[in-house]
Design a protein that fits this description.
InterPro entries: BPD_transp_1_N, MetI-like, MetI-like_sf. The protein is mainly α and about 375 residues long. The protein has a domain of about 250 residues: MetI-like fold (Orthogonal Bundle), CATH 1.10.3720. It contains 15 helices and no strands. The chain is globular and about 85 Å long.
Length: about 375
């Protein structure tokens, strides 16, 4: 009995401690779960509020521009009765705030209206043209990252040298040179004179329509179909417009990478690593470059979003059948449904990429959690 009593007394503190630890762990887990839910709710609210603001700006700008959507439908010689009937059918006779809420309801249902230019639903048109812009911008950002990041790192590691000066000039040219001028010069030199690249359009005219669209990305669709000739022809046409976009992305990324690296290389831990005899290559890429990955991802995300929304001029010059060309045609034809739909998609993509950059920022940097 005495031995049993001793055993019971010996395990009581452990049992109590285990209960306390279990309760603490449960409380901590519950707190983390609650913080996660609150963060998720805040993220969704911010995203919804931003999207609502985008809807409002897009709608009201579309209503104040000096373009009459009714005339785009019936023509400027239509009788007044026809004009009024079309105006009522489009809902333009209602108060502006009512039109806005009707517009929100239509967008949430995926209804962006009918395009006057194509006679098709705007949503269907955007599904058709957006992959072309996505393909060109993606190749452009790949070029920008693969060249811009090493250029920025090298310029920072050779600060003040001729190479550094040359890279800084490239960065300034990326801000100063107009996109349309660079595109036209590229067409005149590399296409018309040297025949190094393909001309306007996604493929040569005799290849057009031969590949069944699956993803909308012609490089991928041609590989799926086993059409190697079309793949290389599409790549030949894509090279110049993607390189022009890649140059502007490269200039921005190289400049920001150089700035981030200079700031890190002035830190004490980099100096300490050099004093300890760490090879310069490891000092640059391990000690200085790793800490800039987080802000660099944000820069790359913003650059990518900028390529997606800023490709209007490039697509017009290269007759690229993307969302920028679609938007330009819609503006020229006073096709406000198409203009509003394209603007809304571009804005939504920009918001989405920014939010994705924020998520990656939190994943890669524990301090941001």
């Amino acid at each position: 009995m005495q031995g049993t009593g001793k055993t019971s007394v010996a395990f009581e503190p452990d049992t109590a401690a285990g209960a306390v630890l279990a309760g603490t762990a449960k409380a901590v887990g519950s707190g983390r779960h609650k913080r996660f839910l609150l963060g998720l709710a805040g993220f969704i609210f911010t995203l919804a509020f931003t999207f609502l603001g985008l809807l409002a700006i897009t709608f009201f700008i579309g209503r104040v521009v000096p373009i009459d959507p009714v005339l785009a439908v019936v023509g400027d010689r239509a009788p007044k009765a026809v004009y009024e009937a079309a105006r009522i059918e489009l809902g333009l006779d209602k108060p502006l705030i009512v039109q806005f809420f009707n517009y929100i309801g239509s967008v949430l249902r995926g209804d962006l209206g009918m395009s006057v230019s194509t006679g098709k639903l705007v949503a269907d048109d955007l599904k058709r043209v957006f992959p072309a812009t996505l393909e060109m911008a993606t190749i452009g950002i790949i070029i920008g990252v693969l060249l811009g990041v090493p250029m920025g790192v090298y310029a920072a590691s050779r600060q003040g040298s001729l190479v550094d000066q040359a890279i800084r000039v490239v960065g300034l040219l990326g801000y100063a040179v107009p996109a349309f001028w660079l595109g036209l010069v590229g067409l005149a030199l590399f296409y018309a004179q040297l025949k190094w690249v393909g001309g306007p359009g996604r493929v040569d005219i005799f290849y057009d329509g031969l590949v069944q669209p699956v993803t909308g990305l012609i490089l991928i669709d041609s590989l799926i179909a086993g059409e190697r000739d079309i793949f290389f022809n599409a790549l030949w046409h894509l090279a110049l417009p993607a390189s022009v976009l890649g140059f502007f992305s490269l200039a921005y990324i190289a400049r920001m990478t150089r700035s981030f690296m200079l700031d890190q290389m002035a830190q004490e831990y980099v100096t300490t690593a050099r004093v300890k005899g760490v090879p310069e290559r490891l000092v640059i890429w391990r000690h200085a470059f790793r800490p800039i990955l987080v802000p660099l991802i944000t820069v790359i995300g913003l650059s990518y979003a900028g390529l997606l929304e800023g490709s209007v001029m490039i697509e017009t010059i290269f007759s690229w059948p993307g969302i920028g060309n679609y938007l330009t045609t819609a503006l020229l034809n006073a096709d406000m449904n198409a203009v509003l739909g394209a603007t809304l998609v571009i804005g939504a993509v920009f918001i989405g990429i920014n939010k994705l950059s924020d998520v990656l920022y939190r994943v890669l940097d524990p301090r941001a959690r």
